[in-house]
Design goal:
Elements lengths: L16 H8 L6 H32 L2 H12 L4 H12 L4 H13 L1 E3 L5 E3 L2 H11 L1 H13 L4 H11 L1 H14 L2
Antiparallel strand pairs: 1-2
Helix pairs in contact: 2-6, 2-7, 2-8, 4-5
């Protein structure tokens, strides 16, 4: 058997999990708190994904073809302005990196007008903001998002029961088994 080189001043000690969590900087949660936080997080993820999906639908309808390509690279794939300019320079024929960056910036932010107090005109951000403000479905989702920010478990459960496919399929299965 091989001798292990264990330091003599080392001793194992029992530590209460709450104390240990305090020492390492993570909050201690009871199992029911952890379950509640998981439900709240799942509800927030679901509404976030639904809002992004609705914004994609709005973008598909209201953006130009060039704006759609930039939107795809910017929002969905997370590219920077420079990366988008480099990727689209072959298609659009930008003369240099600076002009590509400027064109992408104008496409996303719009063009700034000094005549109108520095307001931006056009651009993906402005167009999507206006369309999302007018879209009733998106506004309902936004209200759900605000309600979910209250961190109340019942609101999250109600939202999941209404919108989550797993809940809906389980409800149909139970109704079928019960004969409703």
């Amino acid at each position: 058997m091989q001798d292990l080189d264990i330091p003599t001043n080392w001793r194992e000690r029992n530590v209460d999990p709450a104390t240990f969590a305090f020492i390492i900087g993570t909050p201690f949660q009871l199992p029911e708190e952890l379950a509640e936080n998981t439900v709240i997080r799942c509800a927030r993820e679901l509404i976030w994904n639904l809002m992004l999906k609705r914004m994609d639908e709005i973008a598909e309808i209201y953006l130009t073809s060039h704006q759609k390509r930039v939107y795809e690279l910017w929002i969905k794939k997370g590219h920077t302005y420079q990366e988008i300019g480099a990727l689209l320079s072959d298609v659009n024929g930008y003369s240099c990196d600076y002009s590509a960056y400027t064109a992408i910036s104008h496409c996303i932010k719009g063009i700034r007008s000094n005549k109108h107090g520095g307001r931006y005109h056009g651009g993906i951000e402005n167009r999507l903001k206006k369309r999302c403000e007018k879209d009733e479905i998106f506004q309902e989702m936004l209200e759900d998002w605000k309600r979910l920010q209250t961190n109340k478990i019942q609101i999250s459960l109600d939202f999941l029961q209404k919108h989550d496919k797993w809940y809906q399929e389980r409800r149909k299965q139970l109704e079928f088994e019960m004969g409703y």
